[in-house]
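ok so for the tutorial part 2 we go from a plain amino acid sequence to predicted structure tokens. step 1 is just haveing the sequence, like this:
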Amino acid sequence: MGVDGRLRAVVCLAQAMAAACAPRDSVRAAARGARVALDGSFAAISAWERERGRLRVLVNEGERRAGEEEFPDDESYPVHDFPEVTEFLHERWAGGGGPHAWVESAVGDRPGRRGEALRRRGRGTCVVAPIVLSGRAWGELYIARDEGLPDFDEDDAEFATVLAAVVAAGLAQSERLAEARRLAFTDPLTGLANRRAVDMRLDEALEEHRRTGAVVSLVVCDLNGLKRVNDTLGHAMGDRLLERFGSVLSLCGAMLPGALVARLGGDEFCLVGVGPTADEVVRVTEELCARAAELELGEGVACGVASTGDPIGLVKSSRRLFRLADAAQYKAKAARSPKPVVAGRDTAVVRLADAAQAAASGERRRFRGRG
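step 2 — the prediction. this is what the tokens look like for a chain of 371 residues:
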């Protein structure tokens, strides 16, 4: 591949990573683009997990051997098995050499397990390039050729260094986008999901309910005593109460597989369950109420439950489920109930929600009539 061909390969690699919709797609595009650019048979991208002292393989791309999965669950290697990683990523770099790719061969005598791995998998040569993000070693790009193909040389190592820099830029962009997406659907104080995430999850859940009959449940929680804490102890303590209740809600939500727990805003929280029965959701909500009552700050929590597994009528939209759960929570708060109020099991809740809906519809009609 000439200079023009390599330039085109770099552009294609950058474009493929930019077009990726998810981090997994991004690393796959990076490995594939680098493999094609270097006429490799196989490519892998690994992240260096310092806290665990290991290289964890994120993707294997190209001609995979037995035991090599495209996206392995837990393929990792101790860093001490590859001492050249620390040599190239630290010692030479710290000495002013800069991150640079190097070539390994199945017939070479370089220390470490690269050559052994090449021979075991029927590959003749590989090039390894450090991936550096924000001035720190992040991991490595590994590209190999099968036995019988031309060996990589120093020119290939130079080009691999360029490719690794392009991959690093793409991964940095992907991480920034992932963080932006996370922040868009996360409450910054508690780390729980936010209202936007709840709305999306409920829409998806109700579509699944219409398609398969899956039970969809919504628990709305109003944390008691927050205003008193803010007024008497300060907002920092109020934030602490919100965080602590968020942790309790997260713990209880984990009892329901696939549940989403969220802070709607202020002192309002919720839990969305898809699949578990209404009885299971009520049981977990009772546990939540009991644990919230034991918090050092605050005065417990008022919880309302609305589930398609109970006799609440047809649920066509998330608004209907929210109205029912809100009405149940309102009744629990008014009665200072230590347990959740459940729509459908308390028939007054359904009537209250229907009355609220009718009143809202009447207000809209009167407003429109003024025009």
